[in-house]
Design goal:
alpha+beta; single chain; 3-stranded antiparallel beta sheet; 17% strand
């Protein structure tokens, strides 16, 4: 099988839902303009497009996921004090983000997708030692800012991989889009590439053509510098599930209900004028073609309904039936509460904003276990990152855990 055609069974079976969860978390125009707004049986295509233009997304997926992250990162996190880590901790992405900012992002996106991959990248692999006898030229690395840096990849970007019996990667295949815009006289082109990283080498391929880009680069480390970061606990194939695996579908229902309410308001907000007509309004309206005067403008500011003049009723405004809006809005409010219950952020269907500390403590009993599990997974992943960084920079394995020790909080009592 060609490298450009490879897909892991997990990727093939779950990529669609991973992408949906990611879209639900990020929200914005991609979510609104995607396939999340449903048409109804009384709607024409033009009406649906107009409704989509007015659509808005109440993003509770983001609120739930970031609540977990905020709880964890509101506490102190203890990180390695060894000075070899100092420049890395201050700028782990190579673009200025410190370790805390990066791990917050990792926490959020692992919450959305269930897990993410963190990859070490290098501007010049030739600087790093291939044996314990050689050393990294730290002066060159420092002067030219050639430190290793991290990138995060969501599951839909990792199309295939293989692990050994210990769960370590034998190889990984990452797909991403890059811009080809080095020549300002040529139109920018988006190229999809597949980056293959093995224990022995790194190599890139263009997905469309299958052609290799550049030459293979030796991997001096003897391991694949990728860390898998799980959300909470474990599920299928040693991976973990999204925090919003059920919530995203409820949030999508709320999105559609709100759009239906908006449609009703758009069509029915203003009371409708009814007016008796003996036929003269219609005749005068027809005469507008010649006189330029519209009799309806003199009668009202909008279109009117007419009824026979001999009915004996005076002109009046009729109001639309709002009972349907009230029913749908009650459904929206009820499901918003259910979202927080599903997330473990409320103990009952009561208002989640209970004010007393004791009431909040009761509400958050159910979230304690999830927070502890997520915090432990982040701690484990960050320790793996620190261990890899140390081994990359020194060229030798490290077995003393105290060198790269990371400690995340395990207690989240709201009263403390």
């Amino acid at each position: 099988m060609a490298i450009t055609d490879r897909e892991h069974p997990l990727y093939r079976d779950h990529n669609e839902e991973w992408s949906f969860f990611l879209e639900a978390y990020e929200g914005g125009s991609d979510y609104i303009n995607g396939d999340n707004l449903f048409t109804h049986r009384l709607e024409l295509d033009e009406d649906f497009e107009n409704r989509k233009e007015r659509a808005y997304y109440l993003n509770y997926c983001s609120a739930v996921i970031e609540s977990y992250t905020n709880f964890i990162f509101s506490k102190e996190i203890i990180r390695p004090s060894n000075e070899i880590f100092a420049p890395f901790l201050k700028n782990v992405t190579g673009s200025g983000d410190d370790i805390d900012t990066f791990m917050r992002k990792v926490s959020n996106y692992s919450g959305a997708c269930g897990f993410v991959y963190v990859l070490f990248n290098f501007r010049d692999l030739s600087l790093f030692p291939t044996s314990e006898d050689s050393k990294v030229p730290l002066n060159i690395v420092k002067d030219y800012n050639l430190y290793p840096y991290l990138t995060m990849h969501v599951p839909s970007e990792v199309v295939d991989f293989s692990v050994d019996t210990h769960g370590n990667f034998d190889w990984i295949l990452i797909e991403e889009d890059i811009y080809e815009d080095s020549d300002p006289t040529i139109d920018r082109e988006i190229i999809t590439i597949r980056n293959l990283i093995t224990r022995d080498y790194w190599v890139k391929y263009e997905k469309e053509t299958g052609e290799q880009i550049g030459s293979k680069i030796d991997n001096p480390f003897g391991f694949v510098p990728v860390v898998l970061v799980k959300n909470m606990g474990e599920s299928y194939e040693g991976l973990s599930l999204s925090t919003i695996k059920d919530i995203a579908y409820v949030n999508r229902a709320i999105f559609n209900w709100c759009s239906n309410i908006d449609e009703m308001i758009e069509r029915q907000t203003f009371s409708q004028l009814t007016c008796p007509d003996d036929g003269s309004l219609a005749e005068q309206a027809e005469a507008k073609k010649h006189t330029g005067e519209d009799p309806l403008v003199k009668v009202g500011t909008a279109a009117i309904f007419t009824f026979p003049a001999n009915a004996g009723h005076p002109p009046r405004f009729i109001s639309p039936d709002t009972s349907q809006i009230e029913v749908i809005w009650e459904m929206v409010l009820s499901h918003i509460k259910q979202i927080y219950i599903m997330a473990g952020l409320a103990g009952t269907a009561a208002d989640v904003s209970a004010s007393s500390g004791r009431a909040k403590q009761q509400q958050f009993y159910s979230i304690e276990a999830n927070l502890t599990s997520k915090s432990s997974n982040l701690e484990k992943a960050e320790m793996e990152i620190m261990k890899m960084y140390y081994e990359i920079m020194t060229g030798k394995p490290v077995n003393d855990e105290s060198i790269y020790q990371v400690v995340y909080p395990k207690s989240f009592d709201v009263l403390n």
